[in-house]
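User:
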Amino acid sequence: MITIPELVEYSNNLYGRTDEQCVTCLNPNCAGRCSKCFNAIHGFYSTRDYDCDNLIYHYVCEYIYAKSAEIYHLFNRHLELRALEHYRILSIGCGPASELFGICNALPEVLVDYKGFDLNHRWGRIHTTISNSVHDDPNRNIEFYCLNTFEEFENLDFTPNILVLSYLISHLPKAGIDVNDFLLNLEQIIIDSMPNNSFIILNDTNHKIVRDNFEVSLNSLNNRGRASYITTRYRFKGYCYERSIRHQTDALFHPIPLHIRDRFETWRECGHTAQIVIKKELYDN
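Assistant: Predicted structure:
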């Protein structure tokens, strides 16, 4: 499987900005770096998405080291996540599949069957590069879909035992998607189909709006009465997260090449992130 440094270098080579403003950029404050566009996109009330190929490549170079490390540390801390024999992972809003890299680096020998969904077609070259890199690896089956997860799920012949929503809850309003409607579909179509002793991972910005949406999802699951959902909360640095466990380190697991760090202002440690691991346990009949 392609490594993070290899994917970052691939993205760096595709990144087309110099010191001049991109003519297709929607942000009038753009000064030749995507960081100003990210500031506009990542605002909680923004409706702008990653609407430029350069944003995609910059995103990989700036964020994938840290966001993969967040999942890497989670799998090293939450030991039950390490006990599966076959990892059948469904990721919704997967972007560059940061969680896949985190899992595969934490558990390099495990069998992984990964389905990543993202409606933004601009991730296509990144997805193709990742999936092509595992054609000869019997332990890795990686597929990406630029489709609606809920509409396509029944056609997959695939039952996930790990569901990942990484930086998706905070992104839904930008796509004009109602969070409550999304969570209801998630429960009825995806989570209800998941087997006993499966896991749901929510990884997102440690902000009250996001944490409140986490709790809405948890309350809704528990009120359905179809299974027991055991919850463990984690956090990195930043805002307090009630009843959460602080990770012991914010460090990355790959060094960042100096030319990448300087060009893209790459995150050098895990960010202000909140995480929930939800274990599904079916009731005895």
